[in-house]
Design a protein that fits this description.
The complex is a heterodimer of chains A (about 375) and B (about 80). Chain A is mainly α and about 375 residues long. Chain A has helices at about 5-35, 40-60, 80-95, 105-120, 125-160, 165-205, 215-235, 235-245, 250-270, 275-290, 300-325, 330-355. In chain A, helix 6 (about 165-205) packs parallel to helix 9. The chains are: A mainly alpha (about 375), B mainly alpha (about 80).
Chain lengths: ~375, ~80
């Protein structure tokens, strides 16, 4: 296949991944704000989208996560990256359809690892790096976030127990707006960078950009816009899960969960071991639920989420490997992978319309008996 | 197989300290501000001076604001 054509295909695929990354992760910053009424659903996704775009431009570091030693870069070519992206996009869509918050970064790494495995053999993958940079943080980050959120939530409820409820609710509403915005901004600086890294890496491997170059402006712009647009679409299915179906969330818990998420994300990023935003946020929400009352956490849903996490890397990896194997056969293979990917994505989208979750019904409760009764909607107190 | 436990522990400690500090500062600020409304369910005599509460609240909010600003700096820089 013509070199410049495959590069165009990879860039488009990377932007599609960025878009799915955006709507998949809206929930991280905004699920609890929407559930507690701190933001109206449409306002929440609009703010998250703007902050994600801003975050894409703000960061001066070039995300090197993709080529951070997980796979042997000399064995990567645009076709491998394309196959990895297809694996990541499909896994993102499946988990979105199921309403499960799984890590977009893990899907991306899984897809790339699977695709590289097929293209370069098992020796091309640094399993020590995979363990240290992905598996271990994935296992520990939700636990750390949950423990911190438990403590923070417990203390917040204790301290404000005797204070004026109206003022407390108003205060925490404002605080939650700030903390949610911080999560969204931090997300933009992290995740938009990953796509920029992928596109830049593709341009370098295709010889269109000198090695070590920063991402060109059009890459920054298109990646920022893709993730912003995805965020604005709102992954309502995942927002509903995190906001309503993991635990009952009161305003105080929304604030403590998001403050914990911000603290964990920022400290991990700056201590050189970036954690998955999704896993940190999910852990914080679980912890904030448990910090008030253990029974308010819906452990069945928590179990399903953890199950999805453990499948993310291998599932995206298997799809990436299959796509890599097919795409390596030549132009026809790439076309088959692209068409199959588009067909599967369309199928998932059509299936999702049968039970559509939108801004209008995102806060509805599931109709099962075990989920009732629930505390009255913790909106802005009058 | 090398696992970087020290970094993981550092992340946990720093994040816990930052998150709990901010949450406590905001909580204390709201308790302080509650005094001013006079609706506080407290055994303090009605009409007690609200000024100390407001001062504590202002101090807490400024401190929390500084931590948030530092977080913003970390994101941007």
């Amino acid at each position: 296949m013509d070199a410049s054509l495959i590069v165009i295909v990879v860039v488009v695929t990377a932007l599609v991944f960025d878009f799915t990354n955006g709507f998949h992760d809206t929930a991280n910053a905004m699920a609890t704000s929407i559930a507690t009424g701190a933001f109206r659903p449409r306002t929440a996704v609009a703010i998250a989208a703007c902050l994600n775009v801003a975050g894409a431009f703000l960061s001066v570091q070039v995300a090197n996560t993709i080529s951070g030693g997980l796979v042997d870069e000399t064995l990567i070519n645009p076709v491998v990256i394309f196959a990895g992206l297809v694996g990541a996009i499909l896994w993102n869509l499946v988990t979105w359809f199921l309403g499960l918050p799984s890590s977009s970064s893990h899907a991306l790494f899984g897809g790339l690892i699977g695709a590289t495995w097929v293209a370069g053999g098992v020796g091309a993958i640094d399993f020590n790096g995979v363990l240290n940079k992905i598996v271990l943080p994935a296992a520990l980050s939700p636990v750390v976030a949950a423990l911190i959120a438990v403590a923070a939530t417990y203390l917040a409820f204790r301290v404000t127990a005797r204070a004026d409820p109206g003022r407390v609710n108003r205060g925490f509403t404002i605080s939650q707006r700030v903390s949610a915005s911080m999560v969204a901004l931090a997300h933009g600086t992290n995740d938009a960078q990953k796509t920029m890294g992928v596109i830049t890496l593709t341009l370098i491997t295709a010889g269109m950009l000198a090695p070590g170059s920063p991402p060109p402006f059009w890459v920054v712009l298109s990646a920022g816009l893709a993730i912003g647009l995805g965020t604005y679409m709102g992954g309502w299915r995942i927002i509903r899960t995190l906001g309503r179906r993991v635990s009952d969330i009161h305003l105080i818990q929304g604030f403590t969960a998001e403050t914990t998420s911000t603290a964990v994300i920022l400290s991990s990023t700056h201590l050189g071991l970036p954690l998955s935003t999704t896993q940190v946020c999910t852990g914080s929400i679980l912890g904030a639920g448990a910090g008030r009352r253990l029974a308010s956490v819906h452990w069945g849903m928590a179990g399903r989420i953890v199950l999805a996490w453990s499948f993310t890397l291998p599932a995206a990896g298997i799809v990436g490997a299959g796509a890599s194997w097919l795409a390596a056969t030549g132009t026809a293979g790439v076309v088959v992978v692209a068409v199959t990917g588009i067909a599967l994505a369309s199928g998932i989208y059509v299936a999702s319309r049968r039970d559509a979750v939108t801004a209008a019904n995102v806060n509805d409760l599931p109709g099962t008996v075990e989920d009732l009764p629930r505390a009255p909607a913790a909106g802005v107190a009058t | 197989m090398h696992i970087d436990w020290a970094t993981l522990a550092a992340i946990g400690v720093v994040a816990a300290a930052a998150a709990i500090t901010v949450v406590l500062l905001i909580s204390f600020a709201l308790v302080g501000l509650s005094g001013r409304t006079g609706r506080q369910v407290d055994d303090r005599a009605p009409g007690a001076r609200p000024a100390p509460g407001v001062a504590v609240a202002a101090l807490c909010l400024v401190a929390a604001g500084l931590i948030v600003a530092y977080g913003l700096y970390l994101i941007v820089a």
